[in-house]
Design goal:
Layout (H helix, E strand, L loop, with lengths): L2 H25 L2 E7 L5 H17 L4 E7 L4 E4 L6 E4 L1 E2 L6 E5 L14 H8 L4 H10 L3 E6 L4 H5 L7 E2 L6 H6 L3 E2 L4 E3 L4 E4 L4 H14 L1 H11 L7 E2 L26 H4 L2
Parallel strand pairs: 1-2, 1-6, 2-5, 6-7, 7-11, 8-9, 10-12
Antiparallel strand pairs: 3-4, 10-11
Helix pairs in contact: 2-7, 2-8, 7-8
Length: 267
Amino acid sequence: MSFALILSLVTTAASAKTKKNNDTFKDKSTHVQIVLFDGFDLLDALAPYEVFAAAGMYSKGAVTVELVSAEGKRSVPSGLNGPALEAQASLDPKRPGIILVPGASGKPAGNSEDAIPNILKKAMKTDLPEMLKQAFNNKEVTVATVCGGTLLPAMGGLLKDRHAVTNHIGMVALGALGAIPIEARVVEDGPRFVSGGGVTSGLDVALYLVDRELGPQIANAVEKLFEYEKRGTVWRAEGIAPNDFNTNPKASEEKQPSAIPMSTAKK
């Protein structure tokens, strides 16, 4: 058999496999709703928006993204007297896909109206908590949170005994609300809840979800476009748990297994 014929057969098979993979992901189109509320953090919302929009561009529309609010179509002011963004529709917890909740932007503490705790409390007085509850109960929805946005479902009692991360300032509060705080950049508790810690973690949460939903090629294309590589290992409650040297002091005294000599390993 000639080399040209072999190359032709291999190329055809590879193309068919690539097309099959692309068709598989294309059939699984994903819609993303990014939730806005008064005082939301611009970067928490817009960084994921750009990632998902770019992924949609590279995948010929396999991902779609829109800005929503609990009240429906309206102009939503961001925190710290920042610009407002236009929510295009009402949040629909029944629609399959991803619902992403950003955090708030304001003073880290205090009792002023523009303090983050009060911004979140105000959001909790809207229809958003009930909508999030419906989303968590919908097996076709993945809820993602960025930074202080993790505190919103936690305040609604939706994260009891679930692993999660938020901004480092809110980790104690997260634990007090019944969640299990994990010090990681991105945390996945089951396939349907993903949280990110820190304002810029919105990029990492979105890139992880793009990789998960559409595959690494699209995620890599977005990373190259933004000249940004996803940070950190996504933490899951899987595999071997590391020794905690703070709660188990004797662990530091235990002898580690010796390396097997290469001469022995070959026998």
